[in-house]
Specification:
The chain is α+β, with helices and mostly antiparallel strands and 151 residues long. It has two domains: 1-92, Nuclear Transport Factor 2, Chain: A (Roll); 93-151, Archaeosine Trna-guanine Transglycosylase, Chain: A, domain 4, CATH 2.30.130. It contains four helices and ten strands. The longest helix is centred in the first third of the chain and has 15 residues, at 8-22. The radius of gyration is 16 Å and the shape is globular.
Length: 151
């Protein structure tokens, strides 16, 4: 099994980082780490023990939904889906974009916006559109290729 269960102390640190970065206060999920610093969230009815037993029989590559990635020791990047799942909790580091920027963003292009550096949640009207990393004068697009609009 390529999954590692996140223990309570580490989950508390992740939640504190998310609170500081985005204002997210609660993660009511079982958290698992799967390669490349990716954290997945599971909210099903299986216990850790049941998941471990199943993984001995079957090759479980992933379980739950991809929630976030550890970018640096102190910086987390929410996945595209996490910005939707946690949208009611996200309060900080939100960048509102206009319609022209929206069209560029959903096509997978970076967007020119002057803001402080770091991970930002992109929002158009009331829709959250994933996260990007600001270099100060532009936001690097991290929308998955299969979620982008072609052309």
């Amino acid at each position: 099994m390529n999954l590692r269960f996140i223990k309570s102390p580490e989950k508390r640190i992740i939640t504190e980082q998310l609170n500081e970065q985005f204002g997210i206060e609660n993660l009511p999920y079982l958290l698992l780490e799967s390669g490349k610093e990716k954290i997945r969230a599971f909210s099903g009815h299986l216990s850790k023990e049941e998941i471990s037993k199943i993984s001995q029989i079957l090759n479980i590559e992933s379980i739950g939904i991809y929630l976030l990635r550890k970018e640096t020791h102190s910086e987390l990047r929410l996945s595209f889906d996490a910005t939707h799942i946690l949208k009611n909790q996200i309060k900080n580091n939100i960048i509102d974009i206009n319609k022209a920027q929206l069209i560029e963003w959903i096509r997978g292009r970076d967007v020119s916006i002057n803001t402080d550096k770091g991970i930002k949640v992109i929002k158009y009207n009331s829709d959250f559109l994933g996260c990007g990393k600001s270099s100060g004068d532009r936001i690097i697009n991290h929308v998955p290729k299969d979620r982008r609009i072609k052309k």
